[in-house]
């Protein structure tokens, strides 16, 4: 079966429908390459056609290139030549002299959009799923099939830069107003009719950049006006990326350098950057985590295989506070019925009003219809009474982190729910097996740890208790998938996986502060390392009092087990800041930073500099970066070693989506792979000699080194 | 080894570097011709004896392109045997040519050289020639490129120079330049620019603003705050990680002015001078260049000065007068800190580029001439000229009267 279907009408217009066999979507790979080459040959040898329409038989037009093909390629020469070959094909198509129309019936992304850019006219159907753009940068790659060169030549360097560097996916209307496509239609018939009409009206065409007198809109780098603003272009990206994302840099470089030369040279420059970036380590890291491992997780990598799929229809949420109403919102949004209970009707209604507020914002921005908002609100029943939980097949409690309170609400809910229902606890720290003791049915008790703000954070950490059954795990897993979040599965232990590893980042930050390193330097080190916030800023947003009480509770628990602890850096620093100076964090308007009335940080609190004596020996930034990164990676390895987490994919994905671990490193374990296990162990030993045994490499790493293994 | 001596130095006045500036109507090659002709006439030069003419220029493009040095010597009526080279070391180009000339003389290969510079900033604006440093994203990222104003504000932020600190430098510069102009301290070497009819176009430094005070400067808005917000502040702060934010203190009143002008200096060996009846006025004692981090960019004068002093076996106290180019006020303050000088007694005694402007390619040669004139007027011995340079460099030259 051929991948392309040809159909010629009475006017001589060829409709070429891409329908790659045994695939749900068309994709650029070797098979496509063959079909496309055959197509070109056909078009070149057949004189009888007058124009052509390229469209797809799938739901999407084309979603992009085969990532397998890119991920496995480490040879820049091979990739460069392959890319040039594909581009030569695209070039042949657009220089045939006869009109070619891309009839974009659905998502048209990456290589798919580059195919459309090799057509003279682009018409898209206006429905919700249709996204148009070049999102390669999201997985650390860049457009290499003419995308950069052509978008720059269609809309100009300055307009192209944000679209390309942010990997924006545009709706058909937005793509039209931006100048990336030519027409938007309502349905397929309209699309084909318009395509044919355009062909008949334009029997002989060429691309804008091939026309005489063509100039790049907005000018080239040599135009004085653009030249004045050009130097800011890399600075503006550096300001966000800390130069950690080679793809962003390469897009800017390819766009600017390409705009200085003729079209064909620009295309070749683009191929060279493409080959460099795609064979580079960062793109491998990002593809590995954000594509392969993310898909693996979402497809049930850690879900018990032998349990049939489950559906959840009615969810009871206990607590209508920040976490509770967030959970209720995402659950109702996914189409489930929700009963949201708080201590009384009034508190529950308050939570519902907060949900309405979140959606009002989305409605105001045109991201949600008012009808959709009302429909979602209608699915949420706010109540003060536990008896309303009747009929719920899943309960998620989100009350304060207090063992006794959690036990009480467990009893209350269990009195009203079916024996088969599952009880989930949204706790970030309390051991699940301990909480399960309050349950009549510990097998159906599980941890479902959400992150704040619930409607924005994609990760959910599922915690399996000592007695939790695999059916219960499957149910929780399927629920998390149903609410369109990413479930990772961990075993019960203090801080589980995410809180435990994340806390090493902040505590290392406070250790640096206590050592007398400049607070501003360690914040920059955190961000240069690729973390979304510096250790002090992120602690401020968690809440300093919260962080301190977690630290103190840990000490009490250890003491109860007969294991006394030395006072930690966290306790030393936070008791100084919180207890003595009364600064509790961002929510209170004062922490390590000062905050303005709008809640935004203004500057470091001046005494952050003075609380601890400045170190005589200032560490260089790279050493601070290493300490902040290694400590998280080492803790992740310990979690694996202890069986707290079992899947490499879950570990990496949990680190990126849970606490924002540098995405360009591909997660905590991929960071070690990329660093090289041997080099990592050596550096960790150096750090442990200089800064303490917390950096001692875990045995697992030595074993892996011996066996020549990587985290896979 | 033969020593290098300065026989003479002349300059045009500095005209405001905009359309309404007096020298805007004058082509750069005519600015240069003006000083070349004056140098020849004042010294009754047999130009066939000149071995080379080196002309500094920041933007050697358009009217200033195509080797303006060779163009100008022929245009000015010099002997056909005078070659010429245009030299670009950014802001220091006009001093670089003098150091090169001195080095050539000291090598013994050449004996008499005209060195100097030209810049018509009103006709060929800064940045006209592009350059990979700012315009090539790959290169600029590697260098941590930021515009000079951001670097100047970064220095102020690093050192804690307040708005008042930097404004004071501006006020002093204006007061001193005003006084020097009134007293005619510049007239010895200042060559009026005239038209083809001999009518005077400009015969004084027109950029000076007499009566400038701290109060009048206090009203000026910072010039580089908006530019900084386009990502450049972050580029600087990611590198200078102990600085929390850039304090934007520089503005038109404490930064060097954009002006037009040209200057040349005659340099040669004692023997050549004697043979031609030229009187050596000063010896070029030593010269030095340094490279610094390109992001902070403008910290070169201190280290360059120390290197030049070391090369000469001298120390800071041996220098009677300093000309520190006032690219930005913070550059001068940082220089003082770096070399350990705590007052302005010996520094820029007749004002500087804040008051009079900084015709980039010509400034180095102008400062050298100004320094020498003032040493003679005060009957002092040694002078040091230093400039900060784009891309993170610094230059210094020490002279000694003979």
Secondary structure topology:
The complex is a heterodimer of chains A (712) and B (402).
Chain A: E1 4-8, E2 13-18, H1 30-45, E3 51-56, H2 67-71, H3 76-94, E4 100-104, E5 108-109, H4 111-117, E6 121-125, E7 132-133, H5 147-155, H6 157-165, E8 169-170, H7 172-178, E9 183-185, H8 188-201, H9 224-229, H10 232-241, H11 246-259, H12 263-278, H13 281-298, E10 314-318, H14 322-333, E11 337-341, H15 345-364, H16 370-378, E12 380-383, E13 394-397, H17 403-414, E14 422-425, H18 432-436, E15 445-450, E16 459-464, H19 470-482, E17 486-491, H20 498-514, H21 519-528, H22 535-542, H23 544-560, H24 569-580, E18 593-595, E19 601-604, H25 621-641, H26 648-659, H27 668-675, H28 677-691, H29 699-707
Helix pairs in contact in A: 1-3, 3-12, 5-6, 5-11, 6-11, 11-12, 13-26, 14-15, 20-22, 20-24, 20-25, 20-26, 21-25, 23-24, 25-27, 27-28
Chain B: E1 5-11, E2 15-16, H1 28-43, E3 52-56, H2 68-75, E4 84-87, H3 93-107, E5 112-120, H4 132-135, H5 137-143, H6 148-159, H7 163-183, E6 193-194, E7 200-202, H8 214-218, H9 225-239, E8 259-268, H10 270-276, E9 282-291, H11 301-312, E10 321-324, H12 329-339, H13 353-356, H14 360-378, E11 382-389, E12 393-401
Parallel strand pairs in B: 3-4, 3-5, 10-11
Antiparallel strand pairs in B: 1-8, 1-9, 2-8, 5-8, 6-7, 9-12, 11-12
Helix pairs in contact in B: 1-2, 3-14, 6-12, 7-12, 11-12
């Amino acid at each position: 079966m051929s991948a392309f279907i040809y159909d010629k009408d009475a006017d001589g217009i060829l409709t070429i429908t891409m329908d790659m066999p045994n695939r749900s979507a068309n994709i650029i790979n070797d098979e496509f390459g063959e079909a496309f080459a055959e197509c070109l040959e056909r078009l070149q040898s057949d004189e009888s056609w007058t124009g052509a329409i390229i469209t797809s038989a799938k739901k999407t037009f084309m979603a992009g290139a085969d990532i397998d093909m890119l991920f496995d390629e480490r040879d820049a020469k091979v990739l460069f030549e392959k890319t040039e070959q594909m581009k030569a094909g695209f070039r042949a198509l657009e220089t045939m002299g006869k009109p070619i129309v891309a009839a974009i019936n659905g998502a048209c992304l990456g290589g798919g959009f580059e195919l459309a850019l090799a057509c003279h006219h682009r018409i898209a159907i206006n429905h919700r799923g249709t996204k148009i753009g070049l999102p390669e940068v999201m997985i650390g790659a860049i457009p290499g099939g003419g995308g950069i060169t052509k978008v720059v030549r269609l809309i100009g360097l300055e307009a192209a830069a944000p679209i390309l560097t942010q990997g924006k996916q545009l709706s058909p209307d937005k793509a039209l107003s931006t100048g990336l496509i030519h027409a938007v239609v309502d349905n397929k018939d309209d699309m084909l009719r318009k395509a044919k009409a355009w062909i008949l009206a334009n029997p002989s065409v060429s691309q804008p950049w091939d026309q005489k007198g063509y100039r790049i809109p907005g000018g080239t780098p040599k135009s004085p006006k653009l030249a004045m603003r050009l130097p800011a272009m890399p600075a503006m990206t550096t300001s966000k990326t800390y130069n950690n994302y080679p793809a962003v840099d390469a897009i800017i470089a390819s766009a600017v350098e390409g705009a200085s030369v003729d079209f064909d040279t620009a295309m070749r420059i683009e191929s060279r950057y493409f080959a460099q970036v795609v064979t580079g380590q960062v793109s491998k890291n990002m593809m590995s985590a954000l594509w392969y491992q993310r898909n693996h997780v979402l497809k049930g990598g850690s879900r018990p295989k032998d349990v049939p799929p489950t559906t959840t229809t009615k969810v009871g949420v206990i607590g209508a506070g920040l976490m509770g109403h967030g959970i209720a919102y995402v659950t109702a949004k996914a189409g489930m019925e929700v009963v949201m209970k708080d201590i009384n009707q009034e508190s529950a209604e308050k939570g519902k009003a907060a949900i309405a507020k979140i959606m009002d914002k989305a409605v105001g921005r045109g991201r949600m219809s008012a009808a959709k908002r009302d429909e979602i609100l209608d699915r949420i029943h706010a109540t003060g009474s536990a008896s309303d939980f009747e009929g719920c097949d899943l309960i998620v409690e989100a009350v304060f982190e207090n063992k006794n309170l959690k036990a009480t609400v467990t009893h209350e809910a269990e009195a009203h729910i079916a024996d088969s229902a599952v009880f989930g606890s949204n706790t970030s720290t309390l051991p699940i097996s301990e909480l399960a003791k309050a349950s009549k049915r510990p097998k159906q008790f599980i941890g479902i740890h959400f992150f704040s703000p619930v409607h924005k954070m994609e990760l959910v950490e599922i915690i399996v208790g000592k007695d939790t059954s695999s059916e219960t795990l499957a149910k929780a897993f399927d629920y998390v998938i149903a609410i369109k979040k990413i479930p990772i599965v961990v075993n019960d232990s203090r801080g589980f996986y995410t809180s435990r590893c994340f806390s090493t980042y902040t505590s290392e930050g406070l250790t640096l502060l206590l050592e007398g390193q400049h607070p501003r330097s360690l914040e920059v080190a955190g961000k240069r390392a690729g973390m979304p916030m510096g250790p002090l800023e992120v602690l401020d947003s968690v809440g300093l009092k919260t962080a301190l009480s977690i630290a103190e509770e840990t000490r009490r628990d250890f003491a109860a087990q007969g294991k006394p602890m030395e006072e930690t850096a966290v306790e030393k620093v936070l008791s100084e800041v919180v207890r003595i100076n009364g600064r509790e964090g961002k929510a209170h308007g004062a922490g390590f930073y000062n905050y303005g009335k709008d809640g935004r940080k203004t500057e470091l609190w001046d005494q952050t500099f003075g609380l601890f004596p400045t170190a005589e020996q200032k560490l260089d930034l790279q050493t601070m970066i290493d300490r902040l990164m290694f400590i998280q990676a080492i803790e992740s390895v310990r979690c694996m070693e202890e069986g707290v987490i079992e899947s490499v994919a879950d570990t990496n994905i949990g680190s990126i989506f849970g606490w924002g671990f540098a995405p360009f490193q591909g997660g905590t374990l991929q960071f070690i792979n990329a660093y090289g296990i041997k080099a990592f162990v050596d550096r960790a030993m150096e750090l442990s000699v200089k800064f303490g045994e917390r950096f001692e490499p875990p045995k697992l790493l030595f074993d892996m080194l011996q066996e020549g293994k990587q985290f896979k | 080894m033969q020593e290098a001596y300065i026989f003479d130095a002349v300059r045009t006045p500095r005209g405001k570097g905009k359309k309404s500036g007096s020298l805007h109507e004058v082509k750069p090659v005519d600015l240069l011709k003006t000083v070349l002709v004056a140098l020849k006439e004042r010294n009754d030069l047999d130009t066939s004896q000149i071995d080379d003419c080196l002309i500094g220029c920041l933007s050697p493009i358009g009217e200033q392109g195509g080797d303006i040095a060779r163009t100008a010597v022929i245009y000015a009526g010099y002997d056909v045997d005078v070659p010429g080279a245009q030299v670009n070391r950014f802001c220091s180009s006009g001093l670089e040519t003098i150091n090169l000339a001195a080095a050539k003389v000291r090598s013994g290969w050449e004996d008499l050289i005209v060195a100097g510079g030209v810049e018509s900033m009103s006709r060929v604006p800064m940045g006209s020639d592009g350059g990979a440093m700012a315009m090539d994203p790959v290169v600029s990222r590697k260098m941590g490129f930021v515009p000079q104003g951001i670097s100047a504000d970064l220095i102020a932020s690093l050192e804690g120079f307040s708005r008042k600190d930097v404004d004071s430098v501006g006020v002093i510069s204006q007061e001193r330049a005003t006084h020097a102009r009134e007293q005619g301290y510049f007239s010895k070497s200042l060559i009026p620019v005239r038209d083809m009819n001999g009518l005077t176009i400009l015969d004084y430094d027109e950029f000076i603003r007499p009566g400038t005070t701290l109060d009048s400067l206090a009203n000026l808005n910072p010039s580089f705050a908006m530019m900084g917000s386009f990502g450049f502040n972050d580029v600087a702060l990611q590198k200078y990680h102990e600085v929390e934010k850039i304090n934007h203190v520089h503005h038109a009143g404490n930064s060097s002015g954009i002006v037009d002008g040209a200057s040349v200096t005659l340099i040669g060996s004692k023997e050549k001078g004697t043979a031609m009846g030229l009187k050596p006025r000063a010896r070029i004692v030593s010269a030095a260049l340094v490279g610094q981090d390109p992001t902070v960019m403008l910290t070169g004068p201190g280290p360059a000065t120390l290197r030049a002093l070391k090369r000469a076996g001298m120390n800071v106290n041996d220098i009677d007068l300093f000309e520190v180019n006032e690219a930005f006020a913070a550059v001068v303050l940082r220089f003082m800190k770096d070399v350990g000088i705590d007052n302005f007694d010996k520094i820029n005694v007749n004002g500087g580029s804040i008051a009079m402007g900084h015709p980039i390619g010509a400034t180095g040669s102008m400062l050298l001439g100004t320094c020498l004139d003032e040493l003679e007027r005060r009957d002092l011995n040694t002078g040091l000229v230093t400039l900060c340079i784009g891309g993170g460099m610094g230059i210094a030259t020490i002279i000694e009267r003979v």
